[in-house]
Specification:
This protein is an alpha+beta fold. It is built from eleven helices and 19 strands. The strands form five sheets. A six-stranded mixed β-sheet has the order 10-11-12-15-16-19, sandwiched between helices. Strands 1, 13, 14, 17 and 18 form a five-stranded antiparallel β-sheet that branches. A hairpin with a 2-residue loop joins strand 5 and strand 6. Helix 3 packs antiparallel against helix 4 and helix 9 packs parallel to helix 10. The radius of gyration is 28 Å and the shape is globular.
């Protein structure tokens, strides 16, 4: 009797499950576009510095992003950008495949192409040469600043973006590319260039004499790419051999770059001491230390302005707090956040704020910047006027170093 009851009950349960199951729709598979949105959401959920996600329910943000149909890549990119915008963090951003490739080139320290720095003329919208990179195929072929790039491989540049134009000029080593160049007062001319490996040297170095005849090494660092530490070390070594007794390190309008490059450059000036502290969302604090003998003990002044940001501020703050350098110029930008770069499944990229940093004296400079020891406000100057008599911040640095050298001689 019990067995019959059990069989009857089991059959009833099975029948109920089959009937109920018929009313349950199968799980809807995510489209590739939805998967990309979810991928970004997961990375931010796992890594983002602010665990409140700007005081909002991050799961709700994902649901809203997936609510509307995403019919193509651009729709997915738009949804991602809207999702990230809700964080109110300009440094956590989405990069489409073209932007991601461009960023990788800028930080890698080298590329394969013709070696031109280019820009769109703000008045005319025409693609122009800023300058050919020293030793590049473009320089060897005779291209000049202000040359107009009219066509690339026969294609008019009129409607190309900067990234599109740069992408068309890049290519495998040994391949060729034709450029139609317009030059003031001359007939348009076609240049055939063979692509080669181009090293991006972010360092400008020169030996200058102070008004009292003291040899001062001038170093301008334009960004912290993969070559920055090595190129700066070579420049310091060369200037030391030439007799430099003091240095000016120009970090004005240096937007930063690779955190590790900033740390390595700081180590070139410090024998010991903390360079920077990092703090993640769990409050876990890490630190980076100087780890060896500095390349030179000579006096150092660092030039900074409102365009000095990120890794540049890490370097300036480290050398200021350790008493290694005096800062001259204007209060820096104030970017005290650290981003990590993630490559996404479709070749696009995602930069996410994962930590903040503090100077060796535990100064949190985000949105505050670093105040220089000597404040010198300067009206805008041209590129050709940098580190000349027209550059009041540079002149103030020379004067400060001269005084330091006089004091050192008396001691």
């Amino acid at each position: 009797m019990n067995k019959k009851v059990f069989r009857w009950g089991f059959s009833l349960l099975l029948g109920f499950c089959l009937i109920f199951g018929a009313f349950i729709s199968p799980a809807i598979a995510l489209t590739q576009e939805q998967k990309l949105v979810s991928e970004v959401w997961r990375i931010v959920n796992r890594s983002y510095l602010d665990e409140t996600f700007n005081h909002q329910n991050w799961s709700d943000v994902r649901q809203q992003a997936l609510k509307k149909p995403l019919l193509n890549d651009q729709a997915a990119y738009t949804a991602i950008q809207k999702m990230l915008k809700s964080l109110d963090d300009p440094f956590t951003r989405f990069l489409d495949p073209e932007q991601y490739r461009s960023l990788q080139v800028n930080t890698s320290g080298e590329l394969t192409g013709v070696g031109l720095q280019i820009a769109l003329n703000p008045q005319t919208g025409i693609l122009e040469v800023i300058t050919p990179i020293e030793g590049s195929p473009a320089e060897k072929a005779g291209l000049r600043p202000r040359d107009r790039i009219l066509k690339i491989e026969g294609l008019s540049t009129e409607n190309l973006t900067l990234d599109e134009a740069a992408s068309r000029m890049r290519g495998p080593i040994g391949s060729v590319v034709s450029l139609l160049i317009g030059r003031e007062g001359e007939t348009d001319q076609e240049f055939i260039l063979m692509r080669d490996r181009i090293e991006l040297n972010p360092v400008v170095a020169d030996l200058r004499l102070s008004p009292q005849g003291k040899p001062i090494g001038y170093l301008r660092l334009t960004q912290f790419n993969a070559n920055a530490a090595m190129e700066l070390a070579h420049a310091i070594s060369s200037l030391e051999k030439k007799g430099a007794v003091a240095y000016i390190l120009d970090l004005r309008n240096n937007p930063g770059g690779l955190l590790q490059a900033g740390i390595e450059v700081a180590r070139q000036w410090l024998d010991s001491g903390t360079i920077v502290y990092t703090v993640n969302r769990q409050g876990i604090q890490g630190n980076f230390e100087a780890s060896g003998q500095a390349l030179t003990p000579d006096p150092l002044v660092i030039l900074v302005n409102q365009g000095t940001a990120s890794a540049s501020e890490i370097l300036a703050g480290a050398l200021q707090d350790n008493g290694r350098a005096q800062l001259v110029g204007e209060t820096t930008f104030g970017k005290g956040l650290i981003q990590s770069l993630f490559e996404l499944s479709d070749g696009s990229g995602l930069a996410v704020t994962i930590a903040k940093y503090e100077t060796p004296n535990h100064r949190d400079i985000n949105k505050l910047g670093i105040k220089p020891d000597t404040v010198i406000t300067q009206t805008p100057i041209t590129r050709d006027q940098i580190a000349t008599e027209a550059d009041s911040q540079y002149q103030a640095a020379v004067e400060l170093l001269t005084k330091n050298l006089v004091v050192a001689e008396k001691e």
